[in-house]
Amino acid sequence: MYINNVRDTIRNLSDFEYEEFLSRLRQILNIRHNKYVKPSVLRQRVDEFASGGNPKIDYFECYLLTLDEIFKEGAINALQNPEIKSPIENPKDRTDLMIKVMHDFGLSSQITRDLDDERILIEIKTLLYNSLEHCKGENKEKFRQNLHAFNNFLKIKL
Predict the structure, then answer these.
(1) Structural domain total, the chain
(2) Mean pLDDT on 32-54
(3) Distance CA 55, CA 112 (A)
(4) What is the pLDDT of residue 59?
(5) Within 10 Å of residue 19's Cβ, how many Cβ atoms?
(6) What whole-number distance in Å separates Cα of residue 84 and Cα of residue 70?
(7) Which of 1, 67, 87, 101 has a CA that sits 20 to 30 A from residue 77's CA?
(8) Which residues, including other chains, have CB under 8 Å from residue 47's CB and lie 6 or more apart?
(9) Residue 98 lies in a domain
(10) Do both 13 and 51 map to the same domain?
(11) How buried is residue 74: exposed, middle or buried, by Cβ count under 10 Å (0-12/13-18/19+)?
């Protein structure tokens, strides 16, 4: 029953969510389980699982971890009920916002090599928060204009 709920959850993902799921699943397999899987092979395995195939326990665990990364309490919700609501369409917190706006941006190797430093992560978090707070406006158009001006400022090279 619970495994079928997870299958249904994966089958019910939108195309955008499914691509995000595959991307994050691949990262989790690489980082936490030291398994390098080609994207095409991974897609095939996930499709087989969603269609009723038997999962390997480590893959199933990674499916749940991935759902937790994408959706608030994604794993427990998927186990209990295959109809999880996507926060990506209407983000309510910074995690959902970052997933929505950054899903198709890769980070340069110069940045990723330094992300294990907690102080750098804190500075990135503070930068993003302060940027949004600085740009907020009394209405949507003012917010957009402020974001545009701020982005243009950031593009100025020293």
Answers:
(1) 2
(2) 90
(3) 31
(4) 86
(5) 14
(6) 11
(7) 101
(8) none
(9) no
(10) yes
(11) buried
Q: What is the pLDDT of residue 31?
A: 84
Give me the chain's average pLDDT, please: 83
How far apart are alpha carbons 43 and 94 in whole angstroms?
28
Domain end point (choices 62, 80, 98)? 80
Contact 82, 12 (CB under 8 A): yes
> Whole-angstrom distance between the N-terminal and C-terminal Cα of the chain?
59
Do 57 and 8 lie in a common domain? yes
pLDDT at 107 over 80: no
25, 62 Cβ separation under 8 angstroms:
yes
pLDDT at residue 154 in the model: 87
**Could you tell me the two tokens for 70?**
């994408």
Judge whether residue 47 has pLDDT over 90: yes
Instruction: Identify whether the C-beta of residue 25 lies closer than 8 Å to the C-beta of residue 17.
Output: no
